[in-house]
């Protein structure tokens, strides 16, 4: 009798799924924290994701941060904040991000910094066809940012 109960318990344990937790869609995961080297670029154009360059975007290695990922950057001074990965670059390899800035002088001044990056959401790595409306809006934002940088008092 004891053997039958023991065999039934083993069979039950083998046939029952390992976790009885709810599906992972409702489970909150801790964000991924990594350290990156950050540089800046100011070349306007359509990025790898199909979107026009604009403030709030970075270029990254697709193997580390897929396109359309959302990240938060710490330790970059006034450039710390939330960004989306919308581009890649020939010199952006591994744990390196390239922050878009509308002004060449601003990008040059940014230099090369070690920053902490929190991955808020990994992207789908999908490119979309260029959107003329998004391009026009991004160009207007870039123009305004450059004008603001040119009229700001020199420190």
Description:
With 155 residues, this protein is an alpha/beta fold. It is 26% helix and 26% strand. Strands 1-5-2-4-3-6 form a six-stranded mixed barrel. β3 and β4 form a beta hairpin. It is elongated. The N and C termini lie far apart (88 Å).
CATH topology annotation of the domain at 29-125: Barwin-like endoglucanases
What average pLDDT do the residues reach?
A: 84
Oligomer: single chain
Shape: elongated
Integer-rounded radius of gyration: 23 Å
The sequence of SSEs as H and E is HEEEEEHEH
The second-level CATH architecture of the domain at 29-125 is Beta Barrel
Let me know the CATH homologous superfamily of the domain at 29-125.
RlpA-like domain
Structural class, please?
A: alpha/beta
Strand content: 25-35%
Low-confidence stretches: 18-24
Structure described in brief:
The chain has 155 residues and is of the alpha/beta class. The chain has helices at 2-15, 104-110, 132-151, and strands spanning 32-41, 57-60, 70-74, 81-87, 96-100, 113-121.
Core attributes:
alpha/beta; Barwin-like endoglucanases; 3 helices; 6 strands; elongated
Draw up the topology in text.
Blueprint: H1 2-15, E1 32-41, E2 57-60, E3 70-74, E4 81-87, E5 96-100, H2 104-110, E6 113-121, H3 132-151
Parallel strand pairs: 1-5, 2-4
Antiparallel strand pairs: 1-6, 2-5, 3-4, 3-6
């Amino acid at each position: 009798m004891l053997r039958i109960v023991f065999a039934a318990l083993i069979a039950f344990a083998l046939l029952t799924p390992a976790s009885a937790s709810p599906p992972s869609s409702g489970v909150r995961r801790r964000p991924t924290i990594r350290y990156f080297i950050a540089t800046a670029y100011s070349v306007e154009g359509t990025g790898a994701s199909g979107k026009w360059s604009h403030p709030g975007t970075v270029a990254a290695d697709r193997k580390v941060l897929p396109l359309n990922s959302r990240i938060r950057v710490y330790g970059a001074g006034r450039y710390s904040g939330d960004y989306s990965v919308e581009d890649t670059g020939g010199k952006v390899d591994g744990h390196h991000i390239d922050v878009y800035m509308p002004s060449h002088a601003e990008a040059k001044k940014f230099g090369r910094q070690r920053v902490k990056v929190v991955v808020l959401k990994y992207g789908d790595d999908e490119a979309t066809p260029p959107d003329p409306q998004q391009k026009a809006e991004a160009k207007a934002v870039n123009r305004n940012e450059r004008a603001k940088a040119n009229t700001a008092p020199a420190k």
